[in-house]
Amino acid sequence: MIVLKLGGSVITDKDRPETLDGEALERAADAVAAALEGGVEDLVIVHGGGSFGHHNASEHGVTTAEGTRDAGAALDIHGAMTTLNRFVLSRLLERGVEAVPVHPFSAGHRDVEGDLELPTGQVATLLAEGFVPVLHGDLVAHAGAGATVVSGDELVTALARDLEADRIGLCSTVPGVLDDDDAVIDRIAAYEDVAGVLGESAATDVTGGMAAKVQALLTLEAEASIFGLEDLEAFLAGDEPGTTIDSS
Ligand SMILES: Nc1ncnc2c1ncn2[C@@H]1O[C@H](COP(=O)(O)OP(=O)(O)OP(=O)(O)O)[C@@H](O)[C@H]1O
Ligand SMILES: C=C(C)CCOP(=O)(O)O
Questions:
Q1: Which ligand has the shortest distance to the CA of 196?
Q2: What number is the ipTM of this complex?
Q3: Which residues of the chain fall below pLDDT 70?
Q4: This prediction's pTM
């Protein structure tokens, strides 16, 4: 089972609100379709927000910890993410991928500690029935805080753990985690080894950029890869492009 995240910064133009990077999205959809035709089974896709969702969340002061109890604000943020989800689904459907949406707002929640609870029975059943479930960064109900943002990266972690993913891939706008000289770090085994070079996202991003990604992936048993769009095909073919996060 593969969990693949298509970074919001890859499939959208992160500097312009609610703007797709149509070419990049089509390229990603091509790679997914080719991989499924080539024999990949059991693929779960998660996509991030990029220029959809982050701007809205930021405008309403909503983050993964700061929530809202304003339904209008919640619909604004969730609506931006479902709009992007429709675009992703349609590009996949056009290529014969049996992609269906799973909206985290209707499925998950956070407890008072902020820990995410995400049921995955629907995702497992969709996989078993031959679908490609497509989740996305979203809002979730948060005990004591209203509704807060859940990042695609958190969803990847929860899905990978629960569904015992064999492989995890984060396709981002960078070719991997970069060191001080902008060279791709091949392998990361401990957060302390790279904490100094990890920063936040260059664009409006309420969920933490690269540092949060690496921290989350280090908690998983399976190996994860962070790579750029040019390496998506290679990842889906079984290679380990970019940076491998290995906590074992
Ligand atoms: N050491 C680093 N190596 C690589 N990228 C880094 C590093 N430190 C900070 N970054 C930033 O992290 C960004 C990737 O995180 P970001 O959250 O924007 O990606 P994404 O998952 O593709 O998008 P989204 O969160 O919208 O889904 C890079 O574009 C870069 O600006
Ligand atoms: C900002 C929202 C609503 C979702 C963010 O998801 P991410 O881009 O994966 O961090």
A1: 1
A2: 0.95
A3: 199-208
A4: 0.95
Query: Which of 9, 16, 197, when mutated, tests ligand 1's pocket best, judged by the most ligand atoms within 8 Å of its CB?
Result: 9
CB 82 within 8 A of CB 170: no
CB-ligand 1 contact for 189 (6 Å cutoff): no
Position 223 scores a pLDDT of 93
Each residue's pLDDT tens digit, 12-51: 998 889 999 999 999 999 999 999 999 999 999 999 999 9
